[in-house]
Specification:
Oligomer: heterodimer
Structural class of chain B: alpha/beta
Shape of chain A: globular
Strand content of chain A: over 45%
CATH class of chain A: Mainly Beta
Distance between the termini of chain A: 25 Å
Distance between the termini of chain B: 40 Å
CATH superfamily of chain A: Porin
Strand order of the largest sheet of chain B: 4-3-5-1-6
Order of helices and strands of chain A: HEEEEEEEEEHEEEEEEEEEEEE
Helix content of chain B: 40-55%
Helix content of chain A: under 10%
Largest interface: A-B, 43 and 27 residues
Number of domains of chain A: 1
CATH superfamily of chain B: Periplasmic binding protein-like II
Number of helices of chain B: 6
CATH topology of chain A: Porin
Order of helices and strands of chain B: HHEEHEHHEHEEE
Radius of gyration of chain B: 18 Å
CATH topology of chain B: D-Maltodextrin-Binding Protein, domain 2
Strand content of chain B: 15-25%
CATH architecture of chain B: 3-Layer(aba) Sandwich
Strand order of the largest sheet of chain A: 2-6-7-8-9-10-11-12-13-14-15-16-17-18-19-21
Largest sheet of chain B: 5 strands, mixed
Structural class of chain A: mainly beta
Chain lengths: ~375, ~140
């Protein structure tokens, strides 16, 4: 879709909705225009490699730039329309640093939803995958307690969206609200100088919420093709991700954790997990966390573990104004080598067993 | 003398406990529905599920539509901290996850308690919150356990 046409359409709606996220009610139709963004800068203490936050970023903080805005900065805009509360359409475009080195806007969500009952719906089109507790809102910094989902689990997920179908059903048992979501699709994604295409992509996610406790259980399977710089590395490689997450947030403090088991036929069996806790005083939330990932056994390809590291995190979130928050986060990552895929553009002087300190400053907003 | 002190401490302690336990009852803000509504009382859990978008119907299956007051209005902040246990920032983070994953949208928001009362009075399925002083014959307060 032409970006110019999309931007023109969005600006018309923006003029109509000049004070932000409210709906125009024209009888049976309901529209709303919302957006989010993060302005972030990251500094890495290791100048021999680039710290990145996902597989698609071609450069990062450390080697290319000591201080870099590319890892976390992004802007998203979403248009939602609904007809009589039954049929709705959502289009969300996100602009962030990606594999071709630009911030070209990409379609993150684009689907049609039919509300079968108030508790059941079915969608066709593009969704963001709900693999981890926060992954379907991973780009909305404001909704995350930390600057980014810990890379020790986020790097287990090479694909972030699905083009296909998904259905959701919500029911109540006692005091708990349970939602079950199932999806089926495929997704083609670009990585620097290559591709990562997933097909036979399917999964089930169950979320149980009871007062302060939320439990998230997710199982996802896919087959992928991966090639980079002219070399075809994988064809039809099966990979699955099992994720168990829980969050307890009674208000003044919270604790949350997630555990991931991701076997890949060719690359091996990986485990990842994190445990975070936070304490709120007024508009400030201090948080600490620990995350770890390693490979338990190799796969059919003779290759070393692509990621094996642990990170200690200390951060502060300040909800300084309505619709805004600011975060400062220090991550101390100990690399266990030898491949360290979360650090790219590794220079001859790079130590695969290094300890890297990463400082991140971010301002998130939504409207 | 010791007995008197013990009695006094007991009295103050009991009063403090009663005040804390009944914060919701003493709040200036109270949930309201139309006088034509079937709702007489709700549990805190049911009220929370309605206003956080976890349910769109009552236990009997009747639809229920929550109505908010605009962000920044004191009654809104008081309602959410007293009855739902969420600050404005926590509420916004909650809805941002729902809006940006296409799962739903926050309740319709009106600029004032008087507006909220008007909407509720005209719609037997609506529920809103207003200041106790704004109660009139068109709406009735909902008891929350």
């Amino acid at each position: 879709m032409s970006v110019r046409v999309l931007l023109a359409a969005l600006s018309i709606v923006a003029v109509l909705n000049s004070t932000g996220a409210h709906a125009i009610d024209a009888g049976n139709f309901d529209y709303s225009f919302n957006g989010f963004g993060t302005a972030g800068v990251v500094h890495s203490s290791d100048s021999q490699a680039d710290f990145t936050v996902n597989f698609k970023q071609p450069t990062g903080a450390g080697f290319t730039h000591s201080w870099s805005v590319t890892p976390d900065s992004k802007l998203g805009a979403q248009l939602t329309g609904s007809y009589r509360e039954r049929l709705s359409a959502v289009v969300q475009v996100v602009s962030q640093y990606q594999s071709d080195g630009t911030y070209k806007p990409k379609l993150e969500w684009a689907n049609l939803k039919y509300q079968i009952t108030p508790d059941a719906d079915i969608r066709a089109g593009r969704i963001a995958l709900p693999t981890f507790m926060y992954s379907d809102s991973v780009n909305v910094g404001y909704s995350l307690p930390y600057v980014r989902i810990p890379l020790e689990i986020y790097f287990q997920l090479p694909i972030t969206n699905s083009d296909g179908l998904d259905g959701s059903y919500r029911f109540h048992v006692g005091d708990a609200t349970t939602t079950v979501q199932a999806y089926l699709g495929r997704f083609n994604s670009e990585v620097p100088y290559g591709y990562y295409n997933a097909h036979k992509l399917r999964g089930v996610v169950t979320t149980v919420e009871d007062d302060a406790l939320t439990v998230h259980v997710s199982y996802q399977v896919l087959h992928y093709d991966f090639g980079q710089s002219g070399v075809v590395y994988d064809t039809d490689d099966p990979q699955s991700v099992l994720s168990l997450g829980a969050s307890y947030d009674p208000g003044k403090w919270y604790v949350q954790g997630e555990w991931v088991r991701a076997p890949d036929d060719q690359l091996g069996l990986y485990y990842g997990g994190y445990l975070f806790g936070g304490y709120r005083i007024g508009k400030l939330t201090g948080y600490v966390g620990y995350a770890r990932t390693y490979r338990a056994r190799p796969g059919s390809v003779d290759i070393a573990a692509i990621i094996d590291q642990r990170t200690n995190t200390l951060g502060l979130r300040w909800d300084f104004a309505r619709h805004f928050d600011a975060k400062v986060q220090l991550d101390r990552t100990v690399l266990h080598g030898p491949l360290d895929s979360s650090f790219i553009n590794q220079q001859p002087g790079f130590d695969p067993l290094a300890t890297v300190n990463v400082l991140s400053l971010a301002v998130d907003f939504t409207w | 003398m010791k007995a008197a002190v013990k009695q006094w401490v007991g009295f103050v302690g009991g009063l403090a406990f009663a005040l804390v336990a009944n914060t919701a009852a003493l709040a200036d803000v109270v949930p309201v529905v139309s006088v034509k509504s079937t709702i007489a009382h709700l549990s805190k859990k049911e009220l929370t599920d309605i206003f956080l978008g976890r349910t769109a119907q009552l236990s009997g299956g009747e639809p229920v539509v929550p109505i908010d007051q605009d962000e920044g209005v004191a009654a809104r902040d008081e309602f959410y901290t007293t009855f739902i246990g969420k600050t404005a920032a926590q509420l916004r983070a909650h809805w941002s996850k729902i809006i940006f994953t296409g799962r739903g949208k926050p309740p319709l928001a009106v600029p004032s308690g008087a507006e909220a009362r008007k909407v509720v009075a005209a719609n037997p399925h609506a529920i809103a919150y207003i200041d106790r002083s704004q109660l009139d014959a068109s709406v009735k307060a909902v008891r929350v356990d």
